[in-house]
C-alpha cells in the first residue's frame, strides 16, 4: 500500500479522504502544519505528498520548494479553483501535478495513481537505454546521466524527457504532451508544458537538446554519440 501525506490545515478533510483512498490501496496520513509535515516526510516511508497552497507558517509554494530541495518525492498541489497562476507557480517550483479545490475524491485518486506510476517506473517490454552525445537515459532504472553526472528529475520531468527522446526530431505539440503524460484527456493550461520544458532544460544544461518549434511544439534534438 502506498503511503501519502496530506499537509492541509483543514482538520475535517483528512478523515473522510483517508477512508475513500483506502479503496485504491492508498494510505493517507495528515499534518495540519508544514513543520509537522516536514518532520513526518523526513522520517521517510512516504510515496507522495499532497500540499495545500494556503497554509500557516509557510504557504504551499515555500513548502514545495523546501521538499524539492531535499527529495524528488512526487508532489500534488491543491489550488484555489480558477487560480491559474497558483498552478503555474506550483509547477515552476517542481510540483508534479495540481488539483483545484473543491475536488472530487475520485479525481484525486486517479491523479495520485498517475504520479505514483510515473515515479515507480516499472520496467516494460521496451525498457532500454537511450544514449546521446553527453546524455544517457536508462528507461528501466529511470536514471539520467548528463556529461557523466546523475541528474535528479521528478517523475514528470523524467517522463517528459523519455517521451521526447524515444522519438528524436519528432515534434510533439502541447496537447499531445499533456495527454501522454497524464494518460488521459485532461483540461490543463498549456503553459504547464512550457514550465515543465523550462525546468527540464535547466537541469540538462549545458546540453541543448530540447528544441522549440514556434507555433508547433517541442522536439528532442540530442545528437548520437
Keywords:
single chain, 225 residues, alpha/beta, Rossmann fold, Arc Repressor Mutant, subunit A, 2 domains, 4-stranded antiparallel sheet, globular
Taken from the alpha-carbon principal axes, the silhouette is globular
How much helicity do the residues have?
Answer: 25-40%
Number of helices: 8
| Known CATH architecture of the largest domain | 3-Layer(aba) Sandwich
The quaternary structure here is single chain
Topology (SSEs and partners):
Elements: E1 2-7, H1 14-21, E2 26-31, H2 34-42, E3 48-52, H3 60-70, E4 75-80, H4 84-92, E5 97-101, H5 105-120, E6 129-132, E7 135-138, E8 143-146, E9 149-150, H6 155-166, H7 174-182, H8 191-204, E10 210-213, E11 217-220
Parallel strand pairs: 1-2, 1-3, 3-4, 4-5
Antiparallel strand pairs: 6-7, 7-8, 8-9, 10-11
Helix pairs in contact: 4-8, 5-6, 6-8
Amino acid at each position: 500500500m502506498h503511503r501519502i501525506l496530506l499537509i492541509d490545515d483543514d482538520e475535517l478533510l483528512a478523515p473522510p479522504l483517508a477512508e475513500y483512498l483506502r479503496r485504491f490501496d492508498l494510505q493517507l496520513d495528515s499534518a495540519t502544519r508544514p513543520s509537522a509535515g516536514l518532520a513526518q516526510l523526513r522520517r521517510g516511508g512516504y510515496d507522495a505528498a499532497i500540499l495545500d497552497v494556503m497554509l500557516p507558517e509557510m504557504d504551499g509554494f515555500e513548502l514545495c520548494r523546501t521538499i524539492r530541495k531535499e527529495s524528488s518525492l512526487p508532489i500534488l498541489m491543491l489550488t484555489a479553483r480558477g487560480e491559474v497562476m497558483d498552478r503555474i507557480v506550483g509547477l515552476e517550483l517542481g510540483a508534479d501535478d495540481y488539483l483545484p479545490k473543491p475536488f472530487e475524491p475520485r479525481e484525486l485518486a486517479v491523479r495520485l495513481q498517475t504520479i505514483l506510476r510515473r515515479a515507480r517506473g516499472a520496467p516494460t517490454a521496451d525498457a532500454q537505454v537511450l544514449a546521446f552525445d553527453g546524455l544517457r537515459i536508462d528507461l528501466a532504472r529511470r536514471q539520467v546521466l548528463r556529461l557523466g553526472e546523475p541528474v535528479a528529475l521528478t517523475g514528470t520531468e523524467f517522463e517528459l524527457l523519455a517521451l521526447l527522446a524515444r522519438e528524436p526530431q519528432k515534434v510533439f505539440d502541447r496537447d499531445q504532451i499533456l495527454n501522454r503524460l497524464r494518460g488521459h484527456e485532461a483540461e490543463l493550461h498549456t503553459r504547464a508544458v512550457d514550465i515543465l520544458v523550462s525546468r527540464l532544460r535547466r537541469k540538462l544544461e549545458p546540453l541543448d537538446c530540447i528544441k522549440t518549434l514556434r507555433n508547433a511544439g517541442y522536439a528532442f534534438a540530442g545528437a548520437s554519440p
